[in-house]
Write a structure and sequence with these properties.
This protein has about 300 residues and is an alpha/beta fold. It has three domains: about 80 residues, no CATH class; about 110 residues, no CATH class; about 110 residues, Dna Topoisomerase Vi A Subunit, Chain: A, domain 2. About 25% of the residues lie in helices and about 20% in strands. The chain is built from nine helices and 14 strands. Strands 1, 2, 3, 4, 5 and 6 form a six-stranded mixed β-sheet that branches. Strands 7-8-9-10 form a four-stranded antiparallel β-sheet. The protein has a four-stranded parallel β-sheet with strand order 12-11-13-14. A hairpin with a 5-residue loop joins β7 and β8. Bound molecules: zinc ion (ZN). The site of zinc ion has 9 residues, from loops. Zinc ion binds next to loops.
């Protein structure tokens, strides 16, 4: 006969085998910012099914006497384990150098040459290591190189050489890929960083400006060279993980039109844990269309 306790253990083992459990608390050393007390004492829930963390509000604060925040997902929770993260991979820098060679056929660079001088374009091409991929004929590679000069990711996008806008396929989807998929690197674990992060260093004390798109960062660095222009690469990229390496710097964020509220909310959270971010609201108070970014405005002002 099983005692009650043994019976429980047997049940739990069976449930694990049957994968009825979906979530568990990740007790590895990775701590996040607690949504309640804003300290880095927050343990997040991990989802077996999606193989990733749940959103930032699901988890438990380790400050059991002072904060006690605990928000658990609905569903079977299987205690606390450690998530071992796969080791991060890097691309060889030679790949970057090679990709910077045939920039004459790069659509984005051709577009930049219609607005700026050859010298100005040449300077940003080498500053941001703007690469060219012949995969779609004239596509651009935005290399994500971190502040240790390690190459984390290569994002491949196709632009129209006359308008500078992104090209779309017949099904309406944009041309976008990565060096990892183009080279079919199966075991390559991408951990993204801010685009342009390699320009940030101890010797460079300039204020940092953050925008969403890589193209905007590049263009704005010609218009406003007194700032270091970085890009999040995606709307959701304005977050702690990506901004962590620049916590010591003065930061001005320039969200796209209609993204101001989201970025402001995030900036307030981040400033509470030591960041110095100002969110610029100029674009938000203009009549420009949703999604307009700073580079669009500057370029328009040249044409008008
Ligand atoms: Zn807390």
């Amino acid at each position: 006969m099983f005692t009650n306790k043994t019976m429980n253990i047997v049940n739990i083992m069976n449930k694990i085998k049957m994968k009825q459990y979906r979530y568990f608390l990740d007790k590895s050393s990775k701590k996040f910012v607690c949504p309640k007390c804003q300290k880095r004492t927050f343990v997040k829930y991990y989802d077996f099914e999606t193989q990733g963390y749940l959103s930032d509000d699901f988890g438990r604060c380790d400050r059991e006497t002072n904060c006690r925040y605990h928000n658990s997902p609905k569903g079977l929770i299987c205690g606390a384990f450690e998530v071992k993260e796969a080791r991060q991979s890097y691309h060889d820098f030679d790949l970057v150098k090679k990709s910077c060679r045939n920039h004459k056929s790069n659509n984005l660079i051709k577009f930049l040459e219609t607005i700026f001088t050859i010298d100005e374009v040449r300077e940003v091409v080498s500053k941001y290591f703007i690469g060219t991929s012949m995969f779609w004929g004239g596509a651009t590679i935005f290399w994500q190189i971190d502040n240790e000069q390690k190459v984390r990711h290569g994002k491949v996008m196709l632009f129209n050489q006359n308008t500078g806008k992104r090209m779309k396929k017949e099904d309406g989807k944009a041309y976008i890929s990565s060096i990892r998929s183009l080279l079919k690197l199966k075991d390559f674990n991408i951990k993204q960083c801010l685009f342009g992060l390699h320009l940030v260093g101890e010797e460079n004390k300039k204020t940092i400006a953050i925008v969403e798109s890589e193209k905007t960062a590049i263009i704005m660095s010609i218009f406003k060279p007194e700032l270091i222009w970085l890009a999040t690469g995606m709307k959701s990229g304005f977050n702690f993980e990506l901004l962590k390496p620049i916590i010591k710097y003065k930061i001005v964020a320039f969200p796209d039109k209609c993204e101001y509220d989201d970025w402001l909310k995030k900036a307030i959270e981040l400033n509470n844990i030591g960041f110095k971010i100002i969110v610029n609201d100029w674009l938000e108070h203009t009549d420009f269309a949703k999604g307009t970014d700073l580079a669009d405005v500057y370029i328009n002002s040249l044409i008008d």
